[in-house]
Amino acid sequence: MTDLPTLDHWINGAPASGASTRTAPVFDPARGVAQKNVRMASAADLGTAVAAARAAFPGWRDTSIAKRQSVLFTFRELLNKRSGELAAILTSEHGKVLSDAGGEIARGLEVVEFACSMPTLIKGEYSENVSTGIDVYSLKQPLGVVGIISPFNFPAMVPLWFFPLAIAAGNTVVLKPSEKDPSAANWMAELMKEAGLPDGVLNVVHGDKEAVDALLTHPDVASISFVGSTPIARYIYETASANGKRVQALGGAKNHMLVLPDADLDLAADAAVNAGFGSAGERCMAISVVLAVDAVADALIEKITERMATLKTGDGRRGCDMGPLITGVHRDKVSGYIDVAAADGATVVVDGRGVTPDGDANGFWLGPTLLDKVPLSSAAYTDEIFGPVLSIVRVEGYEQGLDIINSSQYGNGTAIFTNDGGAARRFQNEVSVGMIGINVPIPVPVAYHSFGGWKDSLFGDSKAYGPAGIAFFTREKAVTSRWLDPSHGGLNLGFPQHD
Ligand code: NAD
């Protein structure tokens, strides 16, 4: 694979090859072939990026909010204008269909727009005359060098959840994207430079555990924002916290959709198919389990099956509905769960292994798959499959459905489909999940609310973006100030009290 192009790191405003000679292949999943190599950083390469970010920090921190805001405004304009280029990169390395890549960029752009209002978001508070002649006010200041580690499934949107807010707040960044689809990060970093960002403020380092471990333990890194699978999220949280860093670590998911008998079944079937098979199920907010109340389960399955029959699986550049999986290994792992479910007693209603894709035969294909009567003890139910496999679990009613959701180790997203406002209200109150949809299947909050799950779907106490993102990327100072007038003064060793 030596004749393939090699993607460099992006350090101090320019491509950088680093000292490490390790590389990894980047595939085109719809063709099943490597299209480039990506450099895999050593700890020393990571250190070079942190040093660049550290050197850029004082100047960027002291740059006016207006100037920082104007860079974000320009970035927004450029990203809007050139989103087609980025979408093509996403489709070619991740495999998701072009329209879905466009959706990913649009949701990321929302956070850029939110970051453009940093002058308002970073305002402190002021209390005048808390004691005679004394004022107290708070300041929100940046942390310094912040680290971001992102997963393969949203190579543009997840970095965009973090770096625009971090940078607008005055921090400098080292981003370690997924090595499986790394090019989007370089493309965005270059665009930030074009938008006027000074060199060193946003750096991209490619790699694997070696680079991540160096970031987690580097003394000049103040915080870590991580999104990925639960075992790695837990490791990141524990390691980075033990190294004195502020950490937000978002993990995996197993999202349930509860369909009550009074639901609009056509709406519920559309939702289950869209949220189950969009992006080939490789979304942390995908619906992977439909909890169907017995009374409507057969009718719902029939409607879901009808819709699945219309889905076209194939190359995302050809106007298909669903693309390939990220790698051959992952495709095989996902399709293995179909055997597991069947062996455990589930019914395979639609088997995606027989799909005829509109694309290269070597692509990492698996068609939409529907399993019914999946036992709760089966690994097909308990594991996060992260592919186009939708499981039906039949329940007697609301209580049993709620119980199942609340027994899951995960608590990222969930949805209820019902026309009963009282049931929906009870659900939002009783369910142990961080993001809830009521007749909405993928309840990803807008940028001015915050994103994050409960339980093993999030480690640390900070969600991503929204108000939580501002709090995460800033630290507060409280200033108590007195400007003396000649009447003040004198000795008093007592604890300060108000007068
Ligand atoms: P992953 O955990 O394998 O990788 C995430 C990042 O961690 C990558 O940058 C990777 O290089 C790095 N990494 C992998 N193994 C590591 C190790 N042993 N030590 C240190 N770093 C390591 O996740 P993925 O497969 O890229 O992404 C899919 C997962 O991400 C799914 O579980 C999905 O649910 C989750 N996800 C969660 C959210 C959320 O908001 N909760 C959003 C998107 C994806």
From TrEMBL:
Family annotation (InterPro entries): Ald_DH/histidinol_DH (IPR016161), Ald_DH_C (IPR016163), Ald_DH_CS_CYS (IPR016160), Ald_DH_N (IPR016162), Aldehyde_DH_dom (IPR015590), MeMal-semiAld_DH (IPR010061)
EC numbers for this chain: 1.2.1.27
Q: Which GO terms describe its molecular function?
A: methylmalonate-semialdehyde dehydrogenase (acylating, NAD) activity
Q: Where is the Aldehyde dehydrogenase domain?
A: 20-479
- List the GO biological process terms: L-valine catabolic process; thymine catabolic process
Keywords on this record?
Answer: NAD, Oxidoreductase
Protein name per UniProt: methylmalonate-semialdehyde dehydrogenase (CoA acylating)
